[in-house]
């Protein structure tokens, strides 16, 4: 290229005092970006444009109405209390995260409200996109079209409210995907790092954390080390007494939050047991909920172990992520409708693979049923005014059944070497 040849002919001092090698590096970097852009298909370029539009809309929303349609005020409250060394928790509502999250979010607190809202959303978006692209590359076979465009459609359709509200679901989704990719590639240190960050970003990450942790022996010592480091770093800023006290308060808050979720008092919970008070008018006893969660947790572990033995690492990684997320959606007593953003990539995978690998239009159309079903939730629940959250757990049940059917049928009909 003419630009590359010109860069090679630069004098040692280059232009404007910069060394020629630095100018060559800068030009080569821009050429690489240009070539990558040129190598994208039209659909992929449109996908890039869509994500740029999403980022722009989030920034505009943050500037125009920083205090509306947001949950970041709870994160900011936790960060403010952290900096003031106040108690982070006020019962089963409000700030429901680990003290480490308040510590991390405190970097946003000095900023103007609109700037903190925008920067937080962009940070989440970048982490999620990093995970999305890495996951798409992992699951794509040679010669297949990129999975990113169809995954993008599924994520945006199912996760719109989380993007608008700035909910930590978006970052948690990215960390779930990054953890999955790292573990598939046996990058144990990276995997432990992403899993520790996921637990900090949202405590409900614990489902994947435990499931993947049990199934991967190299994590047995790495995860405890990660937790220890996560515990010690905040102590450098606020002292051990305050940090340990807040962890004790977190445990108390967590018990109260679980009891509040099990009680069924709030008709906007979106887990399996919340279907009954919203649709049938009766609540399931907390002890029954607890026993069911325990039994289903053990069954999920057994199925995940079976998957790890029957499938190659990439497909096993997908199923472990999907199983953990399905369990979380159905049996987290504090699950809400926007939390289903975590399931979007698990669903989007089948939309992509049915088109690019199976080439089966009817099957592809069937996979779209799950995306459309979640999008249609806000209209379907209007059939039951005042009870707004029962349809998404119903869809999660349907998807879980579909997932298990695919898991066992593929394991039976294909050899390990040819199953993806």
TrEMBL record:
Keywords on this record? Cell membrane, Glycosyltransferase, Membrane, Transferase, Transmembrane, Transmembrane helix
**Species lineage, top-down?**
Bacteria, Pseudomonadati, Pseudomonadota, Gammaproteobacteria, Oceanospirillales
GO cellular component terms?
plasma membrane
Q: Where are the transmembrane segments?
A: 118-139, 146-163, 192-211, 223-244, 291-308, 315-331, 337-353, 365-381, 387-404
Q: Name one GO molecular function term.
A: hexosyltransferase activity
Top-rank taxon of the source lineage equals Bacteria
Keyword flag Transmembrane helix: yes
Kindly provide the name given to this protein in its UniProt entry.
Glycosyltransferase family 87 protein
